[in-house]
Amino acid sequence: MTCPETALHGVQAVYEDTDLLVLHKPAGLLCVPGRGPDKHDCLSARAQQRWPGALIVHRLDQATSGLVLMARHIEAQRRLSHAFAERQVAKRYVAVVRGRMQAAGEAAEAHGGWHTIDLPIAADWERRPLRVIDHSAGKPSQTRWRALAWDAAAGTSRVELEPLTGRTHQLRVHLAAMGHAIAGDMLYADPATQALSPRLLLHACSLAFAQPFTGEPLEFHLTADF
Questions:
Q1: Domains 6-88 and 92-202 share a fold
Q2: Is 139 in a helix, a strand, or coil?
Q3: Measured distance CA(158)–CA(146) in Å, rounded
Q4: At residue 179, what are phi and psi to the nearest 5 degrees?
Q5: Which of 19, 94, 150, 151 lies 20 to 30 A from 212 at CA?
């Protein structure tokens, strides 16, 4: 579904109805307030200026751009949060990563080029808020991915990602663990990969779910600006 975008202090409203909002969060903007007066500006605060009572349903990392779903009242938040918990919301991302990331073999071909990263993620307590792959204490974490394009000159791959679980920093941790950290990732990439971009090249490009009160299928797409 596509709808005319309306601007709100640097944030675009891609869609709105009486129950929910789909917003375009720019890279560098928090979803919710952080600690300290310099971190009060965020997506939820800006949304509440126009839609009083708007509530966060899920979050993107500050460095990630793309589609964010918000509820306009508490019952909508409850239903949408339940949909996320039950994996009834389909999310996809696009990223640019270091190196050539390719799907290979008959299994990948049979699934349209999709592969699955299945690596458990745990908090890195000594380096919070970082996360690590931890096979003994980590929570089950799965990410589907497929290669879209290879840029030989830059030495980077453009990939599409579908998180099947919702762990903190999941996409960033999984890709770094595969040896293909995301360009511009200041938390998990090596200096050479960080230097590829002044921002994290990760974008939430697609959301699909049912309207929580009518059941109408809703689907939104937003092209990355990188």
A1: yes
A2: strand
A3: 9
A4: 85, 15
A5: 94
CATH classification code of 6-88: 3.30.2350.10
CA distance readout (Å), 71 to 152, 166, 171, 175, 202 = 42, 19, 25, 31, 24
Summarised one tens digit per residue, pLDDT across range 19-29 is: 999 999 999 99
Active site residue 61: yes
- Of 61, 151, 185, 190, which one is the catalytic site residue? 61
Question: Smallest Cα–Cα separation from 145: which of 106, 104, 185?
Answer: 104
What is the pTM (predicted TM-score) of this model? Answer: 0.92
The CATH code of domain 92-202 reads 3.30.2350.10
Residue extents of the structural domains in the chain: 6-88, 92-202
Give the model confidence (pLDDT) of 49-107 as tens digits.
999 999 999 999 999 999 999 999 999 999 999 999 999 999 999 999 999 998 655 45
